[in-house]
Amino acid sequence: MKNTIAFCFLFLLPLLSFSQGINSKAIKVTNNLNANYTDVTGTKLTIIPPRGFSKSKTFTGFNHELAGSSIVVTEIPGDVNRNFIGFDKKYLIKSGVVTEKETFYQINGYDAMLIEGKQVAYGKTYYRQMLVIGDIYRTYLLSASMLSTSSEKHLAEVKASLLSVIYNPDQKSDITDRFDFTVDVSGTVLKKANMMLSSLTYTDDGNVPSKTTEKTAMTIRKSTLTKAVSEDDKKQLCIKLFELYPLEWVSDIKRDPKLIKSGNLSGYEIYSMGKNKELYKQEMIYQAILFNNLDYYVITGITYGKFEENLSMFKKVMKTFKPYK
Questions:
Q1: CB 290 within 8 A of CB 265
Q2: Are strands 27-29 and 97-107 parallel, antiparallel or unpaired?
């Protein structure tokens, strides 16, 4: 479970047992649907976005580009009451988050916790508001970030938005609805991940991270360029992203990008073997980048075993990639 939380989100924490249900100080809130509510695509949540916020094109949630603010929504497997203590002040501070206030709620009968504080990241200071809500089956984290220069009014509007949330476990949702592309994993060992992440994620057992020996996983995420780039720049982007993986590469395996095509899209793929510096195990990384005008899609495959078989699978799935537009 600890690995699951670490994989999911930078500020998610080790899980311990806790029951907020016995907390008599929980503030009861009742929210009723109205025309101001917006579904959070691919989830069982509905909220009233703050003024000036719109649905993000790159992550699940909402952002205010001019204000530099965002609300990122993440799903965590398991009982919300067990997940509460995961947000321990001592652990949060290791990530630069200083917790200033914790408030417990019952929103429409579902246990929730609001964490307010500050965080220093990338040389800037941010206000952080994190709402955790769910039931015994699933937990959602609504994580808001606002620049330290944000007005009190802006902070209050974001907080009100988080507390407007309506969790409906019967609401129909599919994680893949959040993405503007598809891949076909039929006939492979890959299964849709049991966790909502910023990328479309598959593993060989559906768990994040995988619990198998090979721990095979494949992710697809979308990014957007600010301007058109040359073919050489596309190739260099592939190399640059690949070199970010913390592996001690096998010296006799070339890591040269190769031109690839998938339908009407083209791009580059690169793959190699190396030793994972933390697990001290041989790991294979496959990476393909497909370009669609200014948008580009990064397809990454990772495995600790059955290297030739999984490499063939990664390439096969990449060939099935299709954008909706």
A1: yes
A2: parallel
pTM for the complete prediction? 0.68
Is residue 23 predicted with pLDDT exceeding 60?
A: no
Structure tokens of 38?
Answer: 């917006």
Four-residue CA torsion sign, 132, 133, 136, 137: negative
CB 115 within 8 A of CB 130: yes
The pLDDT value given to residue 205? 93
Long-range contacts of 303-312 (CB under 8 A, 24+ apart): 303/214, 303/215, 303/216, 303/217, 304/213, 304/214, 304/215, 304/216, 304/276, 304/279, 305/213, 305/214, 305/216, 306/214, 306/216, 307/273, 310/214, 310/216, 310/284, 310/286, 311/271, 311/284, 311/286
Vertex 107, ends 102 and 111: CA angle to 5°? 60
Contacts for 291 with CB less than 8 Å, ≥ 6 apart: 234, 265, 266, 267
Size of the chain, expressed as the number of residues it contains: 325
Q: What tens digit of pLDDT does each residue of 133-180 get?
A: 999 999 999 999 999 999 999 999 999 999 999 999 998 877 677 788
Chain-wide mean pLDDT for the chain?
Answer: 87
**Tens digits of per-residue pLDDT, 37-64?**
999 988 999 999 999 999 987 788 999 9
CA nearest to 137, candidates 106, 162, 169 = 169
